[in-house]
Amino acid sequence: MEKTAQEREAGDAIAERERLLVQLREANEQLVLATVRAHELADEANAARALAELSEERFRSLVMTSTAIVWQATASGSVHVDPERWRRFTGAEAGPDGWAWLDAVHDQDRDRVREAWAAAVAAASPYTCQHRLQRREGGYAWVLAFAVPIPASGPVREWIGMLTDISDRVRVEEARERFIGILGHDLRNPVAAILMSAQLLEKIPEPYAKAASLIIGSARRMEAMIRDLLDFARGRLGGGIPIAPTSCDLRMLCGQVVDEMKQAHPTRVVSFVGLGDLRGEWDPDRVAQVLSNLIGNAIKHGADPTMVAGFEEGDDVVTTVHNPGPAIPAAAIPTLFEPFKMTRGDDRESPVQKGLGLGLHIVSEIVRAHGGTIAVSSAEGSGTTFTVRWPRRPSSANRGLAP
To answer: 351 pLDDT band (50/70/90 cuts)?
Structure first.
């Protein structure tokens, strides 16, 4: 029996009511869940706020009990330090100017510090600089300044930095380097006497002449080590290896050094090619020292032929030393020019054969004193190439100064 229109309308009304009741129950459930989640988020926010306050309190306590000076800077590089702590360390007023802090930096370091900070701000990259800062008691302390942009990526809102007193560490390093320099200097005379005496003994009959030759070889290795020690100490204590630039031709210098290396290693193959105008102003003795070291390393660690090249590139002259043979381990390349590092990380030679590990460090310092750069590329199958870029005229700031 068919339902009447009235019965159908009543049924539809009941169904609609049931649907609305279901929606209401679902809405109530969502509301309850949202309320519970809101309380949970509030609790989490309160816990995070309490943890942040605790961390801030701990950080402030650490800063207050340490000798470091924490500072802030605006995105544009205007520095603001705590006036009391600045006064306590330097004896000077911080001043409202964001660059007034530079007045407390040593005169000889001020331009370098200003340029380093400006470069870090421009690049939005971490800032690190070691320099001297005046002390309230008089004199200067060596400090290490470090700062990072906030946030680390994206537009910089501010900078957070710290100054740490490293005077004791610097004094220990200077004392060690001064000792090395004195030791090297005092060893030169007895080694020279041994070498001269051994050269006289070379003229006597065998088997004594062979023993004299061994003494001469050992004495010459000692001479090379002493020279490296003196250069290292001079570079560290004097602010860089000094150079005396004069007009010279790298084509002639390279040719002379290659000829010397051929005479010293008559069984090895060494060649030189020069292209273009290779004239400029360099210290010829120091340039020869760089070339001799690089060619000597190539002969010692690589296979034949060792190929030396010189060519002009813009305002610079570039020299390269290439040799086939085993590649330098990739892990050794980043520290290859650091002092007391061995030339090849996979060598099995004795430390006496390797030397002191100062050769490439001194090479890099000589190049830097000329305002140039040195780089190395090495891969299995293609060999190893050292590339030195020499500005034709080193600036006055580079003459003997390696920051």
So the answer is: very low
Same domain membership, residue 383 and residue 253: yes
Q: What is the mean pLDDT of the chain?
A: 80
* pLDDT above 50: residue 316: yes
Q: Is 284 exposed, middle or buried (0-12, 13-18, 19+ CB in 10 A)?
A: middle
Same domain, 158 and 175: no
- With b for 16 or more beta-carbon neighbours within 10 A and e for fewer, the 24-41 pattern comes to eeeeeeeeeeeeeeeeee
Which token pair is 301? Answer: 């660690």
Read off the DSSP letter of residue 103. Answer: G
Please indicate, yes or no, whether residues 50 and 105 belong to a single structural domain of this protein: no
Yes or no: say if 186 and 193 are a contact pair by the CB < 8 Å rule.
no
- Which range of residues forms the domain containing residue 270? 246-398
Indicate whether 403 belongs to any domain: no
Q: Are 141 and 132 in contact (CB under 8 A)?
A: yes
In the chain, % of residues over pLDDT 70: 77
pLDDT class of 239 with cuts at 50, 70, 90: low
* 281 torsion bin: left (phi>0), alpha (psi -120 to 50), beta (else): beta
Min mean pLDDT across 13-22, 163-172, 361-370, 392-401 is at 392-401
